[in-house]
Each structure stands twice: as C-alpha cells, then as structure tokens.
Structure of Erythronate-4-phosphate dehydrogenase:
Amino acid sequence: MLIVADDKIPFLKGVLEPYARVVYIPGIDIGPEDVKEADGLIIRTRTKVDKSLLEGSNVKAVVSSTIGTDHMDLPWLEENGIAWANAPGCNSGSVKQYVASVFAALEMDYFPLRGKTLGVVGVGNVGSKVAKVGEAFGMKVLLNDPPRAAVETDFRNVDLNVLLQMSDVVTFHVPLTRDGMYATEYLLNDTTLMMMKRGSVLINSSRGEVVEQRVLMKGISSGLIDRAILDVWEHEPDISVELLERLMIGTPHVAGYSVDGKANGTAAAVQFMSRQFGFDLDNWQPSELPVLDDMSLIVSDVDERLNLKLAKAVISTYDVKDDAIRLVEDPGNFETIRGNYPVRREFPAWTISGAKENPELKKSLSLLGFKIQ
Ligand SMILES: NC(=O)c1ccc[n+]([C@@H]2O[C@H](COP(=O)([O-])OP(=O)(O)OC[C@H]3O[C@@H](n4cnc5c(N)ncnc54)[C@H](O)[C@@H]3O)[C@@H](O)[C@H]2O)c1
Ligand SMILES: O=C(O)[C@H](O)[C@H](O)COP(=O)(O)O
C-alpha cells in the first residue's frame, strides 16, 4: 500500500507508516508520476486534484486536510469512483481568531465597534463563529446565506444587497464555487460594490476569487470601502503589490493557520484514510500540541471601554498585524511565509483571569471561547 502526502501536513509523519509506505512531497510538486502507483493521496490546497493528475492512476481515496475543496474536481472524482473528503470545520476556530484580531485592530486604530453593524456572508462553520465575535464586540449582526435559507425555515437571512447597504463591516465566509444558483465567484463585483454603505470595512478570508480585486481597488479609490482586509488573493501566490499597499491589513492566506486548526485537519485526514483502508486509526488525534511559554492572560485593569479590554486580550493571543508586517516586508515570498508560520494557539487554549467581577466582559470573553478563571 502506498500513500502520497503533502510534506507540509503537521503531525502526520510516522502515523501511517505501520500500515503503508508513505511518500512526502511538496504539495505544489505532486504530479501524475508520483501518484500513479499510489492507493491514497493526502493533500492541502496547493495540490490540484483532477483528471490530469489522477487519470490512469491507482488512487482510490483522496483527502484534503483543509476546509476548502475548490482545488479538487469533485464531480470527476465521484464519476470515477474515487472516495474523497475534506476536513469540515477544522480551522474555523482559527479564522474566528483571525477576524477577532482584525476587529481588535479596528477597535484600537479605526472606530469603536459597539453599535456598528456587521454583515456576515456565508454562515457555515466559520461564519457562525464570526457572528459570535461580532456579538462579543457589541455589534448588530446581519447574516446572509441563501443555501441555508432555502432549507432552514428559521434562518434569519438578509438579502445580500440589503446586507451590503446596512453593514459598517462586511466579512466573507463562503466557499469558492463557479457554477450553480449560489455561485460565489466575484460575489463582490461592479454591481454589488454599488450596494455597499459608503465608508465601510471589507474583510475577505474565504477565497481570493470571491472578491473581484479590480472592483475592490475601485471601491477603495472611490471611498465606498474605507478599509480593506485581505487574507486571500486572486492568483496566489503572485499577489498584487499595488493592492497590498492599499489595504489596512494584508496577510498571506494564514487565517486558518493555528496549530489547533492544522492538527484538526490532519486528524480528519488520518481518520478518513483509516476508514477507507481499514487501518486501526479511526479515532486518531495528534498526541500533544505545542504550547507557548505562558498561556495565561490577565484582563487589563485600566479604566477603559470594555471593547478595548477585549481587543487587548485578543491580540495577546494573536496579533494579525505581525502577519501583515511579514507580508509587506516580503510580498514575493508568500508561500515561504506560510510555510514557516509561528505557533499560534486558539482562544480555548488560553486561560484568562480578572474578568469575574465584570459580567459583561466575562460574557464577551466566553463568546470568543476563552477559558475564564
Ligand atoms: N483563509 C483561510 O485560511 C481559510 C480558512 C478556512 C476556510 N476558508 C474558506 O472559507 C470558506 C468557508 O469555510 P466554512 O468552514 O465556514 O465552510 P462551510 O461549508 O461550513 O460554510 C460555508 C457557508 O457558505 C454558504 N454559502 C454557499 N454559497 C453561498 C452564497 N452564494 N452566498 C452566501 N452563502 C453561501 C453555505 O451555505 C455555508 O453555510 C471555505 O470554503 C474556505 O474556502 C479560508
Ligand atoms: O481551506 C482551508 O482550510 C484554508 O484555506 C487553509 O488555510 C488552506 O491551507 P493550505 O492548504 O493552503 O496550507
């Protein structure tokens, strides 16, 4: 039995070796010759999985240890009887922390978020967590998810155009889809841009092609969009430096890069392969995640507004501006920056004290997912 795996999948080495020969290759380099004799393939987003990679190969199962699946030709896999899976929800807590850190930056450097309106486009694993971040910061939250609205009678869907008109901050959390009635490619386009409230903030951490970059530049230049934050880009890793320079925050597709998120993705991949090939690893989890020297926080006792205390707690766990600096300093090294990402742990891994006497702050910290002492 042969398994080919992306060499950037943490915690994987040694796990499958008792059951199969495992060959590790950089995701971008995995080609037809590498997978010809393979039974299974474990990838992340940098391997395009389609007919040109797999036709004539022995591959029977493919798993991507990521949330997104737009790098996989799912209809072709299904037509050809190749089992596939992704890792739903694996890094949703990580994107939640990324957006919370963006909110902290907005709160500290731009405008107070309390009372402002947040529009969440795509309310799945990530979007529903991001809605909680909005609530934690005292925002009014509007939700847009037509596929959910079509099947959930109690889903409070707000039409996209209405959401864009009403929101001070709009954040995208949809999958990239190019066909069908809910296609998301260029969801922000010349027409929808015109619906946006003047002076609003746009955040995209879903996929680059959800927001048409040319239109985003137009929106920024016209003042319709006052601040833009991008984690994902058209044509990654060859990003537009011109656009990067116009952003409040630009990061190299790392919103989902917490250790916790990657570990969850690896666990989903191992468990899927175990079920497919009958290994004894159906409940496998990485044994220990790396920790930082001090993972306890004390809420600031300065007399200041609650959202500032919240913002300070958030950036003590993760400051998105550190990632932005790394990209601004070296935009040509997008993939290298991603490949050498520092240890980041999500909110539930942190313990926070000093909030007990302040029920409102305690509630907000709980919405973010902190362990409160
Ligand atoms: N930047 C990163 O590191 C990072 C990390 C995780 C996920 N992502 C991206 O974010 C996407 C969302 O992740 P998720 O875990 O929440 O996925 P999910 O599948 O749990 O949720 C996606 C939601 O989008 C909704 N949706 C689909 N089409 C829509 C449309 N046209 N308009 C509005 N809503 C629509 C779906 O109904 C679903 O509820 C992923 O597909 C991935 O591309 C990026
Ligand atoms: O889809 C996902 O899960 C995220 O975009 C994830 O961060 C992608 O990571 P990559 O496979 O590009 O390392």
In short: The pocket of nicotinamide-adenine-dinucleotide (ligand 1) is lined by residues 67-68, 88-89, 91-92, 95, 121-127, 144-148, 173-176, 182, 184, 205-207, 231-232, 253, 255-256 (CB under 6 Å). DSSP finds 15 helices and 14 strands in the chain. The mean pLDDT is 97.
